[in-house]
Amino acid sequence: MKGLTIIGSGSAVPDQLLSNRDLSAIVDTSDEWIESRTGMKERYVSLSQETLAQLAAKASIKAISMAGLTPEDIDLIVLATSTPDDLFGSACQVQRRIGAKRAVAFDLTAACSGFVFALVTASQFVRQGVYHNVLIIGADILSRWVNWEDRTTCVLFGDGAGAVVCQSSETEDNFLGFELCSDGTLNSSLNLTYVSEPLNLMENISVGSGGYQSINMKGKEVYRFAVEKVPEVIEKALHRSNLTVKDIDWLILHQANQRIIDSVAVRLGLNKDKVISNIAKYGNTSAGSIPIALDEAVGQSLIKPGDVIAISGFGAGLTWGAAIFRWGINYG
Ligand code: UT7
Questions:
Q1: How far away, in angstroms, is 152 Cα from ligand 1 center?
Q2: Looking at residues 321-332, what average pLDDT do you find?
Q3: Among 163, 254, 269, 315, which has the highest number of CB atoms less than 10 A from its own CB?
Q4: Does 155 contact ligand 1 (Cβ within 6 A)?
């Protein structure tokens, strides 16, 4: 079995800023309500001509450059997204845009848990010695899928992408453990469903034809689920890593609500100066949120080589998971 180390990170958001004050001109809300209930102040949203593949490619190029590699060194691309430009997948468009000619590329859908699920998926290929350099991306443009008349959801989401590059090693292993979970019985708490109408092709033969609706979320249910399940899954991932909460240098949670982040830290007994949060600036960027926060903390030199990082995502499915890794790069 091979070892695995993250050797680069990158992130990208669109240029267009949408503040809480802007939102209060669109729906019946206020800066005060949004900030006090969620911790969000602003977020970035894509223009209609901007694509998921463009955003993901920008983040990827930065991650590959930090890793000291070229796109042609990449063997595998896993793109975690729920908002592809193409329902058949957008990973190959990212591959084309960055020029990763040798890479095999595919999409993975696990909503806001997507980055954690993608990192764990990619790690299996690396451990088995199948692929050496792997690009893992979390990217979403949820502004395409919110109902801009629904104040209970449209104020929460922003667009963005984050990426990391992992490399296999014969001698060093910095991917310490993980735990992934799913519960389809809770699907109706948060979904974006396809609604089908019958289309008669001929007598006695009909098919379905329809489209996707907008995001539907029972906020309180998801809140309660997150506060209960996220500490549990982090504890399990730590146990698998032969570590305890005391060993965590940095906790990076999916950025869905500052109150959830604070509550998870309290439940874990983790000091808040070990918790990374950038929700005020970006809102909830779904699969993008963990790698954007990671990349920002790396850019601010908060994360040092040898630091133990716990990441945890949760969201639609419902899905949730955690991964523990040691930061291996000396970027200073
Ligand atoms: O990324 C996937 C995972 N997602 C999450 O983890 C989200 C989890 N849920 C949450 O973060 C929170 O439940 C929300 C931020 C979505 C909502 O916060 P809350 O404290 O649970 O508020 P609530 O839904 O109980 O609503 C409280 C009040 C309601 O009014 P009444 O019934 O008390 O009169 C809502 O109608 O706030 C009202 N409200 C708003 N008011 C102003 C709901 N949305 C808004 C709004 N502006 N945007």
A1: 6
A2: 82
A3: 163
A4: yes
The single-letter code of the amino acid at 99 is G
| CA–CA dist 52, 84 (Å, integer) | 6
Backbone angle region of 182, left / alpha / beta, with phi > 0 → left and psi within -120 to 50 → alpha: beta
Q: Are residues 181 and 130 in the same domain?
A: no
User: Is residue 231, in this structure, part of any structural domain at all?
Assistant: yes
Q: Cβ contacts of residue 224 below 8 Å, gap of 6+?
A: none
Residues 155 and 220 in one domain: no
Same domain, 180 and 166: no
Could you report the per-residue pLDDT of 139-178, keeping only the tens digit for each?
Answer: 999 999 999 999 999 999 999 999 999 999 999 999 999 9
In a domain, 68, yes or no: yes
248 shares a domain with 136: no
Measured by CA distance, the residue closest to atom 13 of ligand 1 is: 219
Q: What is the pLDDT of residues 201-222, one digit of tens each?
A: 999 999 999 999 999 999 999 9
Q: Is residue 194 part of a domain?
A: no
Q: What is the pLDDT of residue 20?
A: 98
Co-location of 275 and 316 in the same domain: yes
Residues 39 and 156 in one domain: yes
Structure tokens that stand for 23 in this block: 């939102």
Decide if pLDDT at 33 tops 60: yes
Measured CA to CA, the distance from residue 285 to residue 158 in angstroms comes to 5
Residue 284 CB less than 6 A away from ligand 1: yes
Cβ of 106 below 6 Å from ligand 1: no
Say yes or no: CB of residue 150 within 6 Å of ligand 1. no
Catalytic choice (166, 254, 257, 278): 254
CATH number of the domain residue 227 falls in? 3.40.47.10
Is any ligand 1 atom within 6 A of the Cβ of residue 37?
Answer: yes
| Whether residue 132 lies in the annotated active site | no
89 lies in the same domain as 231: no
Half-sphere exposure of 307 (CA within 13 A, CB side): 20
Which atom number of ligand 1 is nearest to the Cα of residue 157? 1
What is the structure's pLDDT at 330? 59
121 with 267, same domain?
A: no
Residue of minimum CA distance from atom 42 in ligand 1 = 29
pLDDT greater than 70 at residue 331: no
Full domain range(s) for residue 9 = 3-173
| Stretch 261-271: mean pLDDT | 98
For residue 19, pLDDT over 70 is answered with yes
